[in-house]
Amino acid sequence: MSDPLLALLLVLLVLMPVFALAARSARLGGASVASGLAVLALSGTMVALAALALDAPPAMLALPIGPTSFGLRFLLDPVAAGLLALVLGCGAVVALVAGSDRPPARRGAAAADLPAHVSPLGPVPIALALAGFGLAAVAGDGGSLATGLAIGGLGTWIGGLGRGASGSPAPVGALIAGPDPAAIPDPAAAPDRTSAGGATPSAAAAHAADPDLPAGSARLAATLFAAAALLVALTLDDPARHARYLCAFAAAAALAGLVPTRAGTSPARGAAVTVLLEAIQPTLALGLLARLTLNFAAGAPPVWWALPPLLLGGAMAVLAGWRGVQAPTLTGIVTLASRRQTGLAAVSFGLLLLARAVDLPALAALATGAFLLLLVTQALGATLAILAAATLQAGAGSDRLDRIGGLVHFMPVTTLALGAGFGGLALLPPSGAFAGVYLALQAVLATPRGTGLAPALLSAFVVLALALGIALAAMGAVRALGVACLGRPRAPRTAGAKEVAGPLRAAWIMLAVAVGAVGLFPGLLLRLADPAVLQLAGTELGARVGVLQLAPATRVPGYAPLPLALLLAVFGGILAWLHRRQGGGEGNSGPAWQQGFSPAPPWLPFGDPGTQSTGEGFVPPIGAAALPRLPALRWPFQLPRRAEDVSPRRGDAVSLRTSAGPAPRRGADVSPRAVPLLLLLGMGVALAVLACLGAA
């Protein structure tokens, strides 16, 4: 029964770019093309879920394409079916939203006649990327895997090459489908941030002033590197399993962004490409890594195989979480939250390898459940949060926290969608991500303690990374929702934001329902994914997973999300009832409530800028006197500073500095990035001292 399902999936994947190209040639409307792509993607999702639910046996299909030594073979197993369902499910929402406000093009019109924010290729890049990533998910050999990743990387690269227009903020379709980065005006640009001539800085200057602006060519190179590394890993002989694992892990690290970089937090490339890079691609990378690694191991993997995902994943979770707490933009907070959860999923995969290495099948099943829950919530939550943040930016004209506020009053549905997205990323109960972290912590705590210093330090590092990830996730979500969505508007443009309608609301509802279902019923998801758990862990979770509870062992109390959610709902209902009961009756007249701000004078209807939040939230610059001085690393030469390198702070008298001017020194402030590094260093030293004392 698996062979027809695999053939149907391949046909649907091939039809997606073919349909997009045909629709572009026929000059169909954007909504029609998006609806067609969404139907194809949802059909593929249903077929993949059916293959997973029916526990169909693995099926192999070879296509007579290419040379004999470079054939294309595709394999449908439980892990591949789950990955494909995630890729196509999230891709359906992206395709549906991307074409929501694209007008139909006139037949025979040239590309120059199209609206400025519409990409000449339309939805073709999205369809190409989804088809490529889908082929990679069901790849059965190195040729098909490399081909799928190359096609997907090419689609994401082309998707960031659309055109845009300067002037007014781009509409939702432009931000979601990917306008030209150089054409988007700086959202923080205000009348006081201009040059001497009164004109705003050039687009090139705005492009260079944003250090988070990604280089599309660099991401394409990373994808092609991953494809080449996986091709090498799958063509090596079985005795070279260590080299095969290192190649596969390097490819997954490049695709998932496990190496901390500053690329990827700018919304200029469009939310569709951001979803592909920050939500779909990391999920696919880690899923492929798990699928390939256990094939390379041929039984029990070596213990040291668990170290790279544990160390890199833990570092990524802490660093991305800390950067998300201090990010100045809403899109930056969302993308960094996605990266933080990618790091936590890598930690869970490391725990899975460690449990398989020491032959603990029960702990391997717990770690596998945590790994799958974190992957699912990362894909769904990041997709919803990124698209909602792009819609809020389109409505408010900016995504900088110091220029928006009170969006819940003007865009309530989109704000609720953003909150639901953070519900999948915030690691707070009752969310699916919290259930995943709970299982990961139970796996760590149940791991037998070995003798020596290394096992104790490794366990402490993993627990510390998980704990800091939970704290930073909650902190970042509260900061983003509180500063951006509550309070009152900080600019006139924000007060003119309007709610979206049509396909956008349908997309929000679909993803929000999926995120809520995973959070309230994680046991049902793990029951559905039992074949994948058996494939990865070698055993099933069994009675430890129920409809209402997750437990580390049978007949042991565990985590019950649904009763907890009902308790929170009852508590909230009681508070609302008390508020309405005590709020009845006649009230006394008094001054208008200013939502916690100082009363605004008549000439400042949006309040005094000096009383508004600057968006720094809980992490203002830390004075140098609070931290010890650290030795600075200096290059033997000094690069010339340019005018684009200046990013003025709010409230300062700003003027663009020329290349001949001296570079200002900020010796009074220390970067907050030093804080988590110092905490980790101090924790490591303390643990080492305690371990040495205990050994003595």
What does this structure look like?
This protein has 696 residues and is mainly α. Among the domains are: 1-104 and 116-187 and 211-299, no CATH class; 309-518. It has 23 helices and 4 strands. It has helices at residues 2-25, 30-53, 78-98, 124-137, 142-159, 172-177, 203-209, 216-235, 241-256, 271-297, 307-326, 330-357, 361-396, 407-410, 412-425, 432-445, 453-485, 492-495, 503-520, 522-528, 530-537, 561-583, 674-695; strands at residues 59-63, 72-76, 622-623, 669-670. A two-stranded antiparallel ribbon has the order 1-2. Strands 3-4 form a two-stranded antiparallel sheet. A hairpin with an 8-residue loop joins strand 1 (59-63) and strand 2. The N and C termini lie far apart (62 Å).
Features:
single chain, 696 residues, mainly alpha, two-stranded antiparallel sheet, two-stranded antiparallel ribbon, 23 helices, 59% helix, 2% strand
Write the layout of secondary structure elements.
Layout: H1 2-25, H2 30-53, E1 59-63, E2 72-76, H3 78-98, H4 124-137, H5 142-159, H6 172-177, H7 203-209, H8 216-235, H9 241-256, H10 271-297, H11 307-326, H12 330-357, H13 361-396, H14 407-410, H15 412-425, H16 432-445, H17 453-485, H18 492-495, H19 503-520, H20 522-528, H21 530-537, H22 561-583, E3 622-623, E4 669-670, H23 674-695
Helix pairs in contact: 1-2, 1-4, 2-3, 3-4, 3-10, 3-13, 3-19, 4-5, 4-10, 5-8, 8-9, 9-10, 10-12, 10-13, 11-12, 11-17, 12-13, 12-16, 12-17, 13-15, 13-16, 13-19, 13-21, 15-17, 15-19, 16-17, 16-19, 17-23
